[in-house]
Amino acid sequence: MRNTNFDNKFNLNFENVAQRLITKDKFKKVQLKKEDILIEKSGGSPIQPVGRVAIFENNNENYAFSNFLQCFRINKQECLPYYLFVYLKSIYNLGYMEYAQNQTTGIKNLIMEEYLSIPVLLPPLEIQKKIAEKIEFYYFQAKTLQKEASEVLQKAKKEIEEMILK
User: What's the Cα-to-Cα distance from 65 to each of 23, 29, 49, 86, 121, rounded to whole Å?
Assistant: First the structure.
C-alpha cells in the first residue's frame, strides 16, 4: 500500500496496488494485518496536508506498506483500532496536520515527533466502542445525505436542460 492508495475520504483503494519483490524478512516487517492503522507521512499537496489516515480492514495478509506510510498496530486491551482511527481522522479534519508538517523539498513530510505527541483520550473500551459507532453512524448519514443531494441536483439540472431545449 502506498499513499496513492488513499482517497480523500479516509479509505484505501485496492485497485492499483503496486507489487514489489521483497525478501521474506523485509516483508514480515512491513506486512499489514487487519485493523492496522496507516498514516501518510510523506506526500501531500498545497491543498492537502500529509497525515491522512486509513484503517486496513482487509483479511488478506499479502499486503505491505511503503516507506511513505507509518503503520500503527494497536494494543486492543487499551484502545480499539476503529476508535483510534476515527480519533485521528477527526484531528486531521480539524486541520491539525498543518502544524505537524514541514516541506524541505517538493514533498511535505509529517513531523513524526509532533504527530506522536498528540494526546489521545482513552476512555474505557466500552465508551470507545460507543464513540466509534456514533461517529461512524454520523459519517454514514453524511454520505447518504451527500448522495441524495447529488441525485436531486442532477435531476434538477436535467429538468432545467429540458426546459431550455423546449
Answer: 14, 9, 19, 20, 27
Half-sphere exposure at residue 30, Cβ-oriented, CA atoms within 13 angstroms: 18
Q: What 8-state DSSP symbol labels residue 95?
A: T
- Measured N-to-C along each axis, helices 125-165 and 81-93 cross at an angle, to the nearest 10 degrees, of 50
| Per-residue pLDDT, 44 | 67
pTM: 0.75
Closest by CA position to 42, among listed 66, 68, 6:
68
| Distance, CA of 49 to CA of 6 (rounded, Å) | 13
Q: pLDDT (tens digit, 9 = 90+) per residue, 76-102?
A: 999 999 999 989 988 888 887 777 887
Give me the phi and psi of 127, to 5 degrees please.
Answer: -70, -40
